[in-house]
């Protein structure tokens, strides 16, 4: 048996392991690209000091580039694939115990433990098959460049982030303008401090002219346990010394069965609002604002 014949099974196995890992990586990137939001990113990634929308696009871009390159030229792409899966495993270890890793967006729930096991098996398969022994594929450079250019462009071409009213184009059954289904909006309440409430994204979806804006504003979800705890506390402590505006962030999967928020402040000093469910709100609820003379004095989220 020739030396090339001895090596061919290892080369086939290495190419197969890289192809399988690349398809797995591209599947996750596709879900993020078409259906996910930054809510699905691990907190350690969301804490990167970049604009959240940019961080989200860069994560998808990285996954697409590494995945496509592994399919096109496994000989040179395996170090990038190994590095990506090592980072994934490190992040997933820190997420153990959480309900979902968010790797495939909010539409698919996979526990960090299961995802860690899958990624670790793929990583071990890549290393065990010694991809550095692969022969380089003879591909026109222009093909590789075009595919990578498409990978870089897609997160920007298919951007679903909404920032201001001008980007909202759908009209509901009542004739009201609402966000397009599948879009997402960042509610970075802590960055609103010092701004007029009328200059925040809330003004795009709430008629502030019909409200008493001063007082306490609370953004919550029906399915949020922390919101339920906080609103229960406010029901006991808020007795009418200031206005309380409760803003529910509606979600498409809201039902009475998964609702955990039941007790909240009530009375003539309470205003209740709802934001449309056609958009996904990127915020760690509850979010809370203190507004005076129309200006946001303080804000916090996820406490």
Q: What's the quick description here?
A:
The protein is of the alpha/beta class and 303 residues long. The chain has helices spanning 3-34, 43-46, 52-72, 74-95, 112-128, 141-157, 225-237, and strands spanning 170-171, 177-178, 183-186, 215-220, 244-249, 270-275, 279-282, 287-292, 295-301.
Q: Structural class, from secondary structure content? A: alpha/beta
Instruction: Output mean pLDDT.
Output: 88
Shape: elongated
SSE string, helices as H and strands as E: HHHHHHEEEEHEEEEE
Descriptive notes:
Strand 8 (287-292) and strand 9 form a beta hairpin. With 303 residues, the chain is α/β, with parallel strands linked by helices. The chain has two domains: 3-157, no CATH class; 165-301, Glutaredoxin (3-Layer(aba) Sandwich). The chain has seven helices and nine strands. It starts with a helix and ends with a strand. The protein has a five-stranded mixed sheet with strand order 6-5-4-8-9, with no helix packed on it. The protein has a two-stranded antiparallel ribbon with strand order 1-2. It has a two-stranded parallel ribbon with strand order 3-7.
Topology summary:
Blueprint: H1 3-34, H2 43-46, H3 52-72, H4 74-95, H5 112-128, H6 141-157, E1 170-171, E2 177-178, E3 183-186, E4 215-220, H7 225-237, E5 244-249, E6 270-275, E7 279-282, E8 287-292, E9 295-301
Parallel strand pairs: 3-7, 4-5, 5-6
Antiparallel strand pairs: 1-2, 4-8, 8-9
